[in-house]
Design goal:
By secondary structure, the protein is α/β, with parallel strands linked by helices. It is 20% helix and 20% strand. The protein is built from four helices and twelve strands; from the N terminus they run αβββββββββαβαββα. It has helices spanning 2-12, 96-104, 134-138, 175-190, and strands at 17-22, 31-32, 39-40, 48-49, 52-54, 66-68, 81-83, 85-88, 91-94, 117-119, 164-167, 170-174. A hairpin with a 2-residue loop joins strand 8 and strand 9 (91-94). The model has no long low-confidence stretch (mean pLDDT 87).
Length: 202
């Protein structure tokens, strides 16, 4: 019943699923699960091309929105940039932060100008984000109204699934908060609270 409810929410509600594109393993192409979302289009200038993907199971194949959580760190292992648009087999897919903004952001606000690859601002320390642990949420300890009128990211930062990334804020940062940082930047720019990026390379 829970799986069916999640599938219905993904099909009809303001819900964005995560799926991951792989930019590295050209010789071992991943193809797990059912890709959703994306638009049929030529790759935009500067867009990263994926070699494979890991997506969700068939029960969520009718989802309306999905965002890419795949990343490609710099040569020193630190993640400084995020692919906002990914090209894969004739379709273009948005990042998780961009998909959230397109699906559930304020319709009256002007969308921010974007490059295909954006520098992650890391403008706020991780402590600036309000976090609720899964156990507290399931136990009903989440403060009433905490999620109202907000974009909420739900995910895991478990060491067992490798969801730890080296960033300028730390050698082992939660992958989920990287996407939260990018989403915060997009919201700030959309509402005129942050300068638009300078022209040139990211």
């Amino acid at each position: 019943d829970g799986d069916m409810r999640l599938a219905m929410l993904a099909s009809h509600g303001p819900l964005v699923l995560a799926q991951m594109f792989d930019y590295v393993h050209a010789d071992k192409r991943l193809a797990g699960g059912h890709l959703v979302g994306g638009v049929s289009a030529a790759a935009p200038a500067g867009a990263m091309t994926a070699h494979g993907y890991l997506a969700n199971h068939a029960g969520l194949a009718q989802a309306r929105h999905a965002g890419n959580i795949g990343v490609l760190p710099d040569a020193d292992g630190t993640l400084r940039r995020l692919s906002m648009l990914t090209a894969y087999q004739g379709r273009v897919y948005p990042s998780l932060s961009l998909a959230l903004l397109q699906c559930c952001g304020a319709n009256s606000a002007t969308p921010p100008a974007l490059r295909s690859v954006e520098r992650i601002p890391y403008a706020r320390h991780w402590d600036a984000y309000e976090v609720v642990k899964a156990a507290d949420l399931l136990a009903g300890h989440m403060p009433p109204g905490m999620a109202r009128d907000r974009l909420v990211l739900i995910g895991s930062s478990s060491l067992s699934i490798g969801d730890r990334i080296a960033t300028p804020l730390g050698a082992s940062s939660p992958g989920l908060l990287v996407h939260a940082s990018m989403l915060g930047s997009l919201l700030d720019r959309q509402q005129g609270l942050a300068p638009q990026p300078m022209p040139g390379k990211t």
